[in-house]
Amino acid sequence: MPRTPAQDDAPSTSPVSDFEQSLDALEQLVEKMEHGEMSLEDSLAAYERGVGLYRRCQSALEEAELRVRLLSDPQNPASGEPFSAQDAGSSSRGDV
């Protein structure tokens, strides 16, 4: 079955595809706000934009995690345990 234009465009509109760009924009916005030279109105607008960028990044991370779980166990993606750096450190110490 041929792919539709909507399917061909899907990767470029995916939250995962623009994660880096959103994260960079969020970091620049935070830097600008930390200087404290913005008016109250500009600060509020920047904060609103920052919340939107944060949500976009969070959505991308959630989608990426789901994709990893689906690749790890396609029959039961909910069975995967969330990864944490603390878990990785304790398991590597147990192997030594």
Can you walk through the features of this model?
This protein is mainly alpha-helical and 96 residues long. The chain has a domain at 26-73. The protein has helices at 5-13, 19-34, 40-72, 85-95.
Brief overview:
The chain has helices spanning 5-13, 19-34, 40-72, 85-95. With 96 residues, the protein is mainly alpha-helical. The protein has a domain at 26-73.
Query: Quick one: how many beta strands?
Result: 0
Q: Report the total helices.
A: 4
- Spans of at least 5 consecutive residues with low confidence: 6-11, 90-96
Q: Beta-strand level of the residues, as a percent range?
A: under 5%
Give the overall pLDDT as a whole number: 78
* Topology order in helix (H) and strand (E) letters: HHHH
Euclidean distance between termini CA atoms:
52 Å
Helix content: over 70%
Write the layout of secondary structure elements.
Elements (H helix, E strand, L loop, with lengths): L4 H9 L5 H16 L5 H33 L12 H11 L1
Q: Keywords, please?
A:
4 helices; 0% strand; 96 residues; disordered C terminus; elongated; mainly alpha
